[in-house]
Amino acid sequence: MTTAACFRCDWEGLVDCDVCPRCGAPLVVDSPRAPRVAPAAKPDAPTTAAAPELLPADSEPPVPAASEPPALTRRGRRRIALITAFALAVGVLWWRDASRPAPGPAPLPLSGTLVYAAQTGAASPERLYVLDLASGRVSRGLDVADVTDLVGTSAEPGWLGAMAGGHAFTLRGARPDQVPVPLATGDPLSWGPAGSVVAVSRGPARTPRCPVSTITVTDVLYGRAHVLFEGPECFSMASVGSDDTGGVYVTLSDLTGSGVYSVEGGRFVSQLPGFRMLSVSPAGEMIVQPQTPSARFALGPFTGAALFHPGGAGPRPIARGDEGLVVERVLAWALDGSVAVVLGILGDVRSVWLVPTGRTPTPVQIGPRLGRSTAPADCDAAVAVDGTVFFSAGGDLFAWSHGRDSPIVLPPSAPPPAGPLAWLPSTGLGTSVVRHPPFWQEWTSQSPATAPS
């Protein structure tokens, strides 16, 4: 039996014949739907794909799983691979650059010669060593003992001045065969401009209470001494110094306090009561420290050292911000007196500092700190003609110029500095200062002065 329909009389039903049982017209038989078959592939196309599954006529085609088309999937994978490779290359380059040391500033152009004291062993005497700053070569100098100060003099190129045990000497070169030439004996001692030396000596008492004090100035080149003061003096002389104009200054002190005086015509003229002079510059500017309550009161809220110029205004505190600098030692002056290199304490930091002088605002703001924290006994400094500052701290050497410092690396065989140091011009170079102090004639034209009794 099949289902059929008659288009003439609209009869429809199951029959087992080909004509309509109502009107005898031919019937139309309803046959099953033909299956869907994929079209044949072109002859030149590859036939690697499998034939699709045949579905019944009355079934719904299955819904394909959600996925990207093959072309899009390949492009996405390629994009991910490119991104991964790029990130890996960037990471490798960053690691390579990060592992390299950061480029440092170019080394400072240094010239001249540094002479420093060092000790090669516990049982060995001190010896001077000579460092050629241009080549880095270090050579041995002469043996020394208990040297407390070294200075390059302008008497002759290559000459040095040294102080040890209350004596001042001239070293006419730093070679091991040089013999120190005695200059002066006294306490205190001070190097003056152009290589002169100022000494204070104490002799036997002329009165039951006061010993005789003698202040002399000795020329390094000729070794001649001139007496500026001689007479009984009950005050002790704590410090002495001189400037480029021939002025000589001392600190007189007793149990009641101290004061800074100038030596004029065989007399002491008071310049700054209540203070102690630590050092005087070639330009005549002093670094002073208050010694009495009234002197400390004069500095206002600042506690520490001050700058003072005789004949000028009062002392000006040396500070950074609102904190005063306590100066322990003045290590060196620039040749024109524009800068002092000092060892001092700011807050709780002991280090080497630069102190500008001249026309500076009040309070005088200190310059940069040089190097690291250091102890009082292991540092010294020297200033070259061009203003470069050489200093030692903790057994290392440094140079400071144009706002930055740089370590000076010594050869492995050279011992570290352990005492004073001095700078000299390059071998064969003269100096810009005349051999004789320009004020020597002024000193020697006067008869030896004697203080009134």
Helix content: under 10%
**Helical region count?**
3
Number of domains: 1
Question: Biggest sheet, in brief?
Answer: 9 strands, mixed
Structural class: mainly beta
* Distance N to C terminus: 164 Å
Overall body shape: elongated
The low-pLDDT segments are: 45-52, 428-453
Strand content: 35-45%
CATH class type: Mainly Beta
Radius of gyration: 48 Å
Could you please say which CATH topology applies here?
A: Methylamine Dehydrogenase, Chain H
The number of strands is 32
Q: How does CATH name the architecture?
A: 7 Propeller
Mean pLDDT, nearest integer?
Answer: 78
Report on the structure:
The protein is mainly beta and 453 residues long. Helix content is 9%, strand content 40%. The strands form seven sheets. Strands 19, 20, 21, 22, 23, 24, 25, 26 and 27 form a nine-stranded mixed sheet that branches. The relative contact order is 0.11.
